[in-house]
Every structure is written in C-alpha cells, then in structure tokens.
Design brief:
binds S-adenosylmethionine, 8 helices, Alpha/beta knot, 3-stranded parallel sheet, two-stranded antiparallel ribbon, 2 domains, alpha/beta
C-alpha cells in the first residue's frame, strides 16, 4: 500500500493556506540524515510542514513535487513517520528562542557550535563534557575533585579535555571534522599519546 498523492497535496495546500509557505519535510528512510545543523536550519522557519508515511511509503510525486526535502532519522526502517516526526519536532523546537528555560543550554550540548561552554570559541561538533550533580559522594562514587575547586579556568580546561576525550573514544569521526584550536590539538595529542 502506498499513500496516494491527492490527499497529501490537498492537506499540505490547506496547511499552507493558513500558515503561509515554508519547508515541507517528507520523513523517509531515504532522506538526508537528521543532524544538529539541519535542525538549526529548520528552526529558522516560522512553519515547517511534516509528512509521515506508512506501509510502503508515499507516492513518489509527493517527494518530487511537494516536499522541499526528505529527512531520515537514521539508517533503519520504522513502520511509520510519526515517531521520526516527533524526533524532528523535539530536536527543532528546543532550538527556538524561549522554548528552553536557559538559552545557553542548547548551545553547550553535543554537536553544538560550542559544546564545551566556551561561547563563541572554536570547537564545534564535539560531544558534551560529563555532568555531575549532588551528592558529592554517592556510595563510593565521588564527583571529580577539580569540580569542587572553584577554579573556573581549571574547570573549563578539564571539561574541554573530557569532551575531547569522550568524542575521540566514542565518535572518532566527529573529531576528524571538528574545528579544533591549538589548545584542543595539544590536549587531543596528549589524550591520544596516553591512549
Ligand atoms: C515502512 S516505511 C517505508 C520504507 C520504504 N518503502 C523504503 O524502503 O525506503 C513507512 C514510512 O515510515 C517512515 N519512516 C520509516 N523509517 C524512517 C526513518 N528512518 N526516518 C524517517 N522516516 C521513516 C516514512 O515516513 C515511511 O514512508
């Protein structure tokens, strides 16, 4: 079974008649993989229309002549586009000013332009550093001492090193693409030397 084109074209035209034009996204495993950069681009639009398929998918004329882009949430196949649409909505809306309590939050996370919290500095595209909260000691597990030192510069350097190390261990592909400054390069070389 395949979604016919008529109702999908009609539905999107009805939405646009109210909202005005905007990107029309067809959720599809054949689409471009969703990533933070794509979410940031979509977050700039006032309205984004999402089309979710089911069964075999949607008549190809929808992809070719109605959708402005096809987006996949990963290289696997789900039964329908509803969950991919929910993933896309959450990923995009949290970038819209006012949605998160603290605007800085979304800028300091994995894949963001400044995942280490150094607003405006290079280092784009690495994973977030580890986070801790109270209590300082849980069973025999303690929070790293540096975080209790009150030395903000030392803490910043520690966080950056942790972020680089985690990225190198978990996602070496990201390290290869990240914009690393001289200090990052030195930290990374040391991490790699120690192994
Ligand atoms: C069973 S899938 C269709 C698969 C399609 N016949 C193919 O092999 O490429 C049904 C619908 O689920 C949605 N879907 C499934 N996997 C998806 C993914 N990884 N990303 C985005 N949407 C997905 C799409 O809307 C798709 O039209």
């Amino acid at each position: 079974m395949v979604f016919k084109p008529e109702p999908v074209f009609r539905a999107v035209r009805a939405v646009h008649a109210e909202s005005g034009p905007g990107p029309v996204v067809l959720l599809s495993p054949q689409g471009r993989l969703l990533d933070q950069a794509l979410a940031e681009r979509l977050a700039l639009h006032a309205h984004v229309t999402l089309i979710c398929g089911r069964y075999e998918g949607v008549d190809e004329r929808v992809a070719a002549h109605l959708a402005t882009e096809e987006i996949s949430i990963g290289d696997y196949v789900l039964s329908g586009g509803e969950l991919p649409a929910a993933v896309l909505m959450e990923c995009v809306t949290r970038l819209v000013p006012g949605v998160l309590g603290n605007e800085e939050s979304s800028r300091q996370e994995s894949f963001s332009p400044s995942a280490d919290g150094r607003a405006g500095m290079s280092g784009a595209g690495v994973l977030d550093c580890p986070h801790y909260t109270r209590p300082v000691k849980f069973e025999d597990l303690t929070v790293p001492e540096i975080l209790l030192s009150g030395n903000h510069e030392e803490i910043r350097r520690w966080r950056r090193r942790q972020a680089l190390e985690k990225t190198w261990r978990m996602r070496p592909d990201l390290v290869a693409r990240a914009a690393l400054d001289d200090q990052d390069q030195r930290m990374l070389a040391e991490i790699q030397r120690i192994g």
